[in-house]
Amino acid sequence: MNTPNPPHEVQGSQPPAPIHRQILSLALPALGALIAEPIFVLADSAMVGHLGLHELAGLSLASTILMTVVGLCVFLAYATTAATARKAGAGDRPGAVRDGIDGMWLALLLGLILTAALLAFGSPLARAFNPDPLTLPHALAYLRASAPGIPGMLLVLAATGVLRGLLDTKTPLIVASIGAVANIGANAALIYGLRMGVAGSGLGTALVQTAMGLALATIVGIKARKLGVTLGPRGTGLLASTKSGVPLLIRTAALRLALLATVATATALGPVVLASHQIVNSVWGLTAFALDALAIAAQALVAQGLGASDADRVRSMLRIMVRWGLAAGAVIGIVIAAGAWLIVPLFTSSPEVRAAAVGGLIVIGILMPLAGYVFVLDGVLIGAGDGRFLAWAGILTLVAYLPALWFVSRFAPGGTWGVIWLWIAMAGVFMAARAVVLGLRSRGTAWMRLGI
């Protein structure tokens, strides 16, 4: 086995042009798909925001709970991408697709379980945040309407992971784009046409996500049939998918706990901060997922490179993708900070919420390059299958972040400055902790396991 040099210390010329082209060919379609997905949240926020302050605050709380439940299962995409790409890189394409199908069955099973759990325990979960009495009914309405869409959401994750592992990011882009447009139409009809309010937003998103999951599953099924791969579930395959996903589940749980703690802090600072946080968080999600396009390319290309035992190529990809992450973060951050006063009115007409949200957007604009660095390194290590380290890293960074949130909840004022303090903690302290931990790991060689 080759002994690779520390990735950030490699000397020599720039990576060959094919690496640049491969990264672009994967990252650009992935960028479109990742932007299309947060449009679901942006569309919900924009439409519900014009219903009123408490409706928007209720959506903020409910969507955080829903996205936490779904986000905990993002390992379905990450683990299937890494497993599929590594086997594809080693020349075993049927085996790659078979592993992906096992991940899709696991997604469907988990989706059904989580739907039942959210319907049963969604109300106590929402009440645990102690929201304003006028906010709670809207949060519960959204949760109950959107819960049946969870199996479709998880199926989208797993099927997308399979296609990414096969270096196909165009198909998820097409499906996500159609879904985003359909979601806007469905939500407009249900919220305003049928006057369902916040519940219409949740139902529209659930219907569209289910349709997307079925569409992507059908596409993967066609590929499997062409390769002679069976479509039924395998006990050993489900067990292997679960085992590989557990460390990433722990990593994601730590990240989601950080997000939940952030929302809890926003809730404690009052409805103006909570509503403003929803706007800032929606934009953060859009931009963060856009930066994650490079991480998607990193996952697939690093896994394929390691599967093919090409350590030199992996080192070259890491070096250039880190640079792109920093540059992309800087460009996106400038756009957000400069356009904050133009973005916020799309979501609310409340002067208090507008002023507070603008302050938060300026903060994340300034700190976006740091996010670009973190997202790229996270993608590299996920693609390398370094799940155990990522699990410990997630716990460590959460422990570092919680004291900052306590300080905000204890000393921050309400209104604009409350949002600014909150996002300095989230986009600054939390992301800096992740940057240090992931950066140190990427400089070593323990994560570069060559072969299958």
TrEMBL record:
TM helices/strands, residue ranges: 23-41, 61-83, 104-125, 145-166, 173-194, 206-224, 257-277, 283-303, 324-344, 356-377, 389-408, 420-440
GO molecular function per UniProt: antiporter activity; xenobiotic transmembrane transporter activity
Gene Ontology CC: plasma membrane
Under the heading InterPro entries, the entry gives: DinF-like, MATE_fam, MdtK-like
Q: In its keyword annotation, does this UniProt entry include Nucleotide-binding?
A: no
List the Pfam families hit by this protein, alphabetically: MatE (PF01554)
Q: How does it sit in the membrane?
A: Multi-pass membrane protein
Q: Where in the cell is it found?
A: Cell membrane
Q: Which UniProt keywords apply?
A: Cell membrane, Membrane, Transmembrane, Transmembrane helix, Transport
NCBIfam families named in the record: matE (TIGR00797)
What family does the Swiss-Prot or TrEMBL record give for this protein?
Belongs to the multi antimicrobial extrusion (MATE) (TC 2.A.66.1) family.
Q: What is the protein's name according to its record?
A: Putative efflux protein, MATE family
Name its species: Bowdeniella nasicola
